[in-house]
Amino acid sequence: MAFGESEVDAQLQSAWQQFCRQLEAAGERVFKDNNPATEIHRADAFRFLTQNLGQAFDLALETRDSRYPMIHPFCTPTRKLGGDAADFTYHQAWIDGQSCYRVSGERGSARFINFTVQGERPDKQPGTDIPSLHDPFGDIPEANLFGHQMQIDDDGRFELYIGGPERDGNWLPTTAKTRKLFIRQGFDDWSESPALLTIERLDMTEPRPVMTADSLTDAMAWAGIFVEAVMTDWPDHPYQYSPFVDPVGVNRFPPDPAAAAGQDDQKRGRAVANLCWQLAEDEALIIEFAPPDSFWMVSAMGVFFNSLDYLYRPVSYTPARTALDDDGKVRIVVCQHDPGFHNWLDTQGFERGNICYRNLLSTATAEFATQVVSLADLSEVLPLSQRVSAEERQQQMQQRFDSIRRRYRI
Questions:
Q1: What does the alpha-carbon distance between residue 82 and residue 233 come to, in Å, rounded to a whole number?
Q2: Separation of alpha carbons 28 and 50, rounded Å
């Protein structure tokens, strides 16, 4: 058997060659101006591309059929995308508005859990001239269910129905434009465990159809657009369009994150702010704020809005894991080398990146003060801040390592 002996050979070869051209073009975007010309920045950008190449066909082909849904782990310790927070897990399932689905499993103990039915993905965000982020982002939330709204058995088990006639209990409606279920879990204390979830279509009676040349061709086209757009939109899209991001005003948060969020984000019950940091090896950024009485998190990311190495390094903080100073304020030290203070965000040797503050199930925000100081002057600037010994830091890191592995079952 040889090329040309099947009537679909030319179709498949052409689709694959086009995908490879798009993958090559995606690689060229590693060298964009927004990505510093250092060894680790360039390497991290290619890693960002290969991580998402690894999930391109999961999204485009393996989980794509909404009549045979699968819950896909969208971000993991080895796959970062979309400003993923180190203390969130993200899953998605392609669904449609004609079918009825059941999600079942164990709730777990994550402090935050949210199921969102997503609708259409317009070319531009409603009421604006802002182009939507690349697929699978940019779709419009249609319905939400939060953990505190769920009915859960005494043993922690639950069932959630999606679509079909309205039901008592856990149910989310769909529309003709429904296309995706998005699941987020937010973790605070290291002891919290993840939910165990499965999804099925209720009237499924036949096996999933065998893949065809047309379905694979369509998947190659989707995957090619995806890998190229991943490298195009990050960080350019948030730098240009996001009200939460100021790439010019480095080392500071926007002055009023709640105002920047606008009405749509306030309706979601959250406040978000992003800081673009730029630091030399001998510098440290101090972030100071009075924490709101709610579930908040601070998470460090790279240039491409990819979370830093949260399995092995201290790159995120939440209320349960943050030390407060005697005046009730949080002071976080952002730098490359361990400064000996409890609340250290490790930049991993990168010279630029992003830090995202999230406040969940609340529109309360915080007022941030930031300053850049020499590492040598930290003890004078923060004389009363909480410190840790080398042994205590090792214990912190072991707790992080054990907890992250439990979240992802790795």
A1: 10
A2: 13
